[in-house]
Amino acid sequence: MAARFVSRKDETVRLFKSDILEFWSRVHFSVPLILYVPVVGWLLYSAWTGGSLSHGWIVGLLLAGGFAWTLSEYVIHRFAFHFEPRTPLGKRLFYLFHGIHHDYPNDSKRLVMPPAASIPLAFLFYGGFWLLLGKPRVDPFFAGFLTGYLAYDMLHYAIHHAPWKTGVGLYLRQHHFRHHFQDSENGFGVSSPLWDIVFRTMPTGTAGQAAADSTATRAPETESSQKAG
């Protein structure tokens, strides 16, 4: 079986024949901040000035939402992004959503979620939490959830592009690089290894070898270069 192609450069491959779809598949890392920081602010303002919740409840729900994101991040990465489809269509959709990131992990325009995907998901999650928690509790909870998502997106970008050499940043980089370059069947936490520890999916390998592998280029698979759209 041929080794999977893994680029070590900040480069990409065209995904869609359509120029419009191709344009919307790429996004600058600042776009999620521009979109969702005002939403977080509005949700917190609405909760703070609404008078129905005490300040303690608002802070508690905010923290609970952030914590809920960490579990959602793990579950989505493990069971959706690493689902193994069997049909040609399923394989193509998987490649569009996540496979390309494993082939081009340093592609700076495909490290954060594009609005075409994140906005519908945001509405879906907000609606689900509204049904579960009701108004007004959903607002500070979802503010925390969105803050967790933004932290994930920014950390994911920084893991691949910031020159971290010490501290928490280096640890998260090593953890994520083990997932990319040594053990893609484990290590699904990006912003935190918490749920990898809980569910015993810590990636194998060593930090030094992961760093070395991240600079190695492997032979490409022909299937990964197929275009959609």
- Summarize the biggest pleated sheet: none
What overall geometry do the principal axes of the alpha carbons give?
A: globular
Q: Tell me which oligomeric state these chains represent.
A: single chain
Mean pLDDT across every amino acid position: 84
Could you state the order of secondary-structure elements as H and E? HHHHHHHHH
Structural class by secondary-structure content: mainly alpha
What's the number of helices?
9
Rg is 19 Å
β-sheet strand percentage: under 5%
**Uncertain residue segments:** 215-228
Q: Compute the number of strand runs.
A: 0
Distance between the termini: 28 Å
What helical percentage do the residues reach? Answer: 55-70%
What does this structure look like?
The protein is globular. α3 (55-81) crosses α6. 61% of the residues lie in helices and 0% in strands. The chain has nine helices and no strands. It has a domain at 29-169. The protein has 229 residues and is mainly α. The protein has helices at 19-24, 31-50, 55-81, 88-103, 115-133, 138-161, 167-181, 194-198, 207-213. Mean pLDDT is 84; it is low at 215-228.
